[in-house]
Structure prediction request, 194 residues.
Amino acid sequence: MESNITREAAWELLKKYNKEPFHLQHALTLEGVMRWFAAEQGFGADAAYWGIVGLLHDIDFELYPEQHCKKAPELLTAGGADEDMIHSICSHGYGICVDIQPEHVMEKTLFAVDELTGLIGAVALMHPSKSVMDMKVSSVRKKFKDKRFAAGCSRDIITRGAEMLGWDMNDLLAKTIQAMQSCEADVQTYMDAG
Prediction:
């Protein structure tokens, strides 16, 4: 998969519509996580593309939360993204805010890990280290069952994502933790640089 938008252009496009550090950090995390999953699932040659999809997945969320995944096509088109990338990005809202179904493994992966990275990040903040580097699946599993913890992270979506991929929940949790570990330092470096 070739992207007709560079990573640098994607980052500038994201920052045009997103200023909140939380949203920028989430986008950077998804970029790194998607790159890791691309390599892990045999799509290493497409890792940059997967990363850009992850980076831009919530482009419209900060300014247009009520139109999430509906305003994105307009913003992405203006930024130079093609129809395939727009479909991939918008499909993570399937059954939530749009009817665009995830088809490719990349799209199913994005659907599965978007909410999950938020949950894992919230669990990390409970640890003294505030890091995913010492995260265990059991810690996330325990908090997954507690619906009041990080209540904004939909367990139903995470479960549906695991089913879409045909993965056991423990596999999805373990892989997503590894993916987040692979990019945590880079994300922090970006955030520190402003």
Summary: The chain is about 65% helix and 0% strand. The CA atoms of residues 11 and 55 lie 7 Å apart. The two ends are 30 Å apart (CA to CA).
